[in-house]
Amino acid sequence: MIPHRLIFVDPDPNALDAYKRLLKALRPTWSASYASNGRDAIQTMRKLKPDAMITELNMTIENDSDLLKAVQKFYPDVIRIVLSSESDAQAETILRATQSAHRFLAKPCKGEVLLANIEQAAELRKILNSRELRELISGMPYLPSLPQLYHELISAMESPLISVAELGDIIARDVSMTTRVLHLVNSAFFGLPRQVSNPREAVVMLGMNVLKSLILYVKLFFAAPDSKFPGFSLDDMWEHSSLTARLSREIARDLGGSSRVQEDAFLAGMLHDVGKLLLLEQPKYISSIKWQQSQQEDLSFAEAEYLEYSTSHAEVGGYLLGLWGLPDPVVEAVACHHRPTQISGETSPVLAATYLANALLCCKAGDEIKFDETLLNQGKIKSMLPAWTNQATRLHEELNHN
Ligand SMILES: [Fe+2]
Ligand SMILES: [Fe+2]
After folding, report:
1. Domain spans of the chain, in order of start
2. 272 CA to middle of ligand 1, Å?
3. What is the rounded average pLDDT for all residues in the chain?
4. Which residues pair with 5 in a beta bridge?
5. 237 CA distance to ligand 2 centroid (A)?
6. Which ligand sits closest to the CA of 312?
7. Which ligand is nearest to the CA of 275?
8. Considering the entire predicted model, what is its pTM?
9. Type and span of the H or E element at 381
10. Rounded Cα gap, residues 44 and 100, in angstroms
11. Which CATH superfamily is domain 5-129 in?
């Protein structure tokens, strides 16, 4: 899918002029509208039905409500990209906006980078809308909903005055969730120096974003029955997911990712295989994959899926997280963690980190992995690979000592 219709929203007329010149020079066949405020933007959207909206942060419509949230609610298919000049000091505002935006870019942003982002967001939607994936999803009895507790935490975090203690209290209200989250936090795989006994302490020690990942993990993994299929035990999945999350965050940091990128890499690592859980409900799917593997030696689970269905558990997981409104970098990393270069252009650090962490840990577990050469040749990835391999070994050993 090529995005043909865009809308740019910015109160600065010079910025709008710059967008016009950019499109004329680099994508002359795309059409675009320009609005200097949120109200005009919404009116134009009704008529134009754009593929993507590129907006400044904090644009409002009637009653001072947020433009991004309104578009998310009334035009959910429109790709929402925030291009903002807010400084790092306003990171909280940005964090809030990114809950309703697919992508966040900081000004000044090179024209090519902006356009590549719009195209990548469109490609991701194309992957998540493929016929093969839609058929697979439509055969599923149900898709889990986003946990209520997660909603509550997101809205509580929108308040600048919320304290760590209050966030801990919100989590504590859901007793069964708290018990499960603390159980995971205190398991050996998490590598904490001491036991955590209550949610307040967990917020302080782990940070809110790690806890949010655990809440999503618990929602998905504890709803699933333990599987009869070999290689799919929930304990094994927890071990693999938590190690992938930790390694993915470290790789994102080594790639120079901001704290936001590192958090997304952790979340994507934690949730990258959720699609497998959904597919366990489909015994026919799993047995056809097993049959493929029995026919061809050295065929990995994911390779067999692509061979048989032209899609995989990765895209299924990405689809669910997209439905839940998680940010694009996380959805993309989960959807493409076995084929990181199926989206064109430079691979995002969140996707690169998730892919590499999963692949390195699968190697440690004895799987035969053919690394994606195109990805390895990007930036400093190839030169850093030996260090990350050692790190994967270290994480495994740490686990075995505990
Ligand atoms: Fe996977
Ligand atoms: Fe995995």
Report:
1. 5-129, 137-401
2. 6
3. 87
4. 31
5. 8
6. 1
7. 1
8. 0.87
9. helix 381-401
10. 20
11. Response regulator (3.40.50.2300)
